[in-house]
Amino acid sequence: MRYLPKSDAEREQMLKAIGAKAIDDLFAIIPAEYRLARDLDVPRQQAESEIVAYFKAAGQKNATDYVSFLGAGAYRHYRPVIIDSLVQRGEFLTSYTPYQAEITQGTLQAIFEFQTMIAELTGMDVANASMYDGSTGAAEAVLMAMRVTGRHKALVASTVHPEYREVLATYLRHRDLATAEIGYVAETGRVDLDRLAAAVTEETAAVLVQSPNFFGVIEDIPAIAEIAHQKGALLIVSIAEAISLGIVRPPVEADIVSMEAQSFGVALSYGGPFCGVIAAKEQYLRQMPGRLAGQTVDGKGNRGFVLTLSTREQHIRREKATSNICTNQALVALMATIFMTVYGKEGIRELAEHNLAKAAYAAKALSAQSGAKLLFNDAPRFHEFVLETQESPAQWSQRLMDEKIVGGIELSRWYPELKNATLWCATEVVPREAIDAAARVMAAAPVEA
Amino acid sequence: MADVEKQISRSIGKVRPHQTQNEGLAFEKSSPGKKAYKLPPLDVPKVDSKALLGEAYRPESAGLPELSEIEIIRHFTRLSTWNYAIDLGMYPLGSCTMKYNPRVNEFVSRIEGLAEAHPYRPESLAQGALEIIDLLQRCLIEITGMEAITLQPAAGAHGEFTGILLIRAWHESQGNPRRKVLIPDSAHGTNPATAAICGYQVENIKSNSLGGIDVDALAKQVDEDTAALMLTNPSTLGVFENEIHKIAEILHAKGALLYMDGANMNALVGKVRPGDFGVDVMHLNLHKTFSTPHGGGGPGSGPVACKKFLEPFLPTPVLYTKEDGTKHWQYDRPKSVGRVRAFYGNTGMFIRALAYILANGPDGLRQTTEDAVLNANYIRKNLEDLYELPYKTPSMHEVVFSDKRQAAKGVKTGDIAKRLIDYGFHPYTVSFPLIVHGALMIEPTESESLEELDLFIAAMRSIAKEVEENPELVKTAPHSTRVSRLDEVQAARRPVLRWKPAMS
User: Fold this and answer.
1) What CA–CA distance (Å, rounded) separates B126 from B369?
2) Do B128 and A106 make contact, defined as CB atoms within 8 angstroms?
3) pTM score, whole prediction
């Protein structure tokens, strides 16, 4: 086996040194009736060329030559080449969690830079070293708010990503913690502030909203914060599209921000690995889940970085930890860090503006066809929009597929009241011709006989 | 000082102190106007962002650094040189299974049709990804001897969470979720933390003199209120629980289930299957046993495999195959515990893990396990005269010593670990498991050649000698690194968790 650096002679030599006759002597402690006396029924050993061929064929089956208007929590942006060159350096790729600080300063400093960049973008004081993804990050943020406030109820906007809400429900299910959903205003697609104000009580630990929300609409964060804070509840803002922060005002009134950083140079990869991160106001630091890198000095006064405040974590606190999280998304966070460094202060704004312009154009072009209209047009949005069509999406989406275009995703799957409504996303990588083509194909409804 | 340097260079076979370049924070190198990006010309009309966004417009840009491309390359390359890595040498972290991360895994995970696949693309355009997921699921079910699986959990602890949720949902379906989960005192911290977040009380069970479960004590402890036992097998001592079948019987007799933490699966693959020895549900760590890279702390992937009776409770969605052979996601699962994360899991890791399984085949997987166990036993044999072996039970893939003899000289496991760095190795796992005072937990994995093992053994033997002759040298190690021991107390007391520009 080509990954195993031993000859049979060396194996023999080692067995002899140990004092074993055969390798199975070392497995003698396993009761014989459980030992596997046959080969595992998995594919035979393959050559590297066969492995590459297998996955290339799978990639082709997945079809690559489609233009896509899909977003909804997973966004396709251009990924600068140097990200992949750098994260494939073995010193990053094949290193472990930096518990041994003296020989992991590279990872630790990069995490420190990541934390700083996330704090800068979100307007929060501190950020952690990453969470699994935006959905688990949002759930952990709610648990964090419950610890901070000692309260047991959360209000969740129904415009938070439906799968994030499902994950939250799973996380809270067995903890005597309750959530209630707050609907949206039909004209704006924003969380219903009146209903929210009526629902927030002295028992509310947190209000969770997403902005831009699942419909692509930017929520009125200052107004929501005021409602939450009046009753002593924390405001958690979930951000599924990190690029929006280039041009959209950061949610500085929030107490906790849970962000999905996939847009920062991370491949879609059929849904993962992505990169969640939790950022918060400094006073809530001790209730944060996940790893944190902090600055310190060594014995000679040199600046260095260590993982810190680990008394919050499971390996120290066991059942009293703030979370059971151990492994996080370090390498993906590094990708995001490199992405943010490549675009920098001005680039992230310019990139966000391109997204804004593409979506504005696409929204206009696609809603121009007869019978189509944009929903939630009375509120600002980033790069996603909701289109309602006369024809059912099943009909036009097939026509688009014939032209190698994947249109918006049907919302009735999660919002039964939104019939014939689809969520579209146009990032900077969607060319104008594709938008025009999609509009043309959709408008060309077959004449009914 | 000169004396120390002489000591460092003496008899250290693998490494000599190397120069690494200084590098400040990206923020400190930034200057306005430098750029590492160029966007193509906008092919649609420019918009007035301020007018479009109104109150939601961001007036001030985030303070991200401004650098050119070459500076960014050098910045992160220099940082990388400050890291130790598997690619540089043995990484004997017990319980972490730091094995070789094959490069073909990286290559195939980046194939365009896979890397660029949106999770909501129509299933007809995702058959390639779904076939990979299906094949990996079938391989992992076969390897574990279980009957159903979900790949959704993002890491090991997330898998534990999912597994305990399955157990809870099953008990609920039987009319009573029960109150407590039993966990050995040798367990990973994630186990009790997981049980707690699933709403269970944690009850510790003491290890016996062999480092295993005291079966008689267990029989007394298990009652109708016990939901499950969370067991790592082999244990964190690297010891196979040879009474595992009795343990399973005791639990099952009281209606409790057996959860297995699969962190140490690298000792079992191809030799024995948890499903065959009574485990009801378990998680795997693809980033341990199945060679996906740790990447400085993640991403991982923590599939959960279970017996048939738990299948209805698996997270949504679950993959199924239609009669025409096409694969689809099934969402309508009324008994499911719900989602544990968005989308389907860390697909990029599935691709890598499957590439690893294909590269090995059944014979390679078995040989891998045998070599991992061989390596650990070779180290044990060659160090047991110098380091205290608190449990004499046969070792599987890792061996746990204690610092008892060295502590008599005032040198602790953490010091020995730091001194290993000077010899060119990453430290072993320090002070874990908790049941061994001053533990040195060593897991070489199968990826080490005899030559590398001998260098490691020589280093450990040399350190043991240094402890006798010059304990200060060990206590103040490492001496060859960029930074010496860092002040962790200060870091925690006055946390500096982000860079801030100097006040001007």
Assistant:
1) 34
2) no
3) 0.97
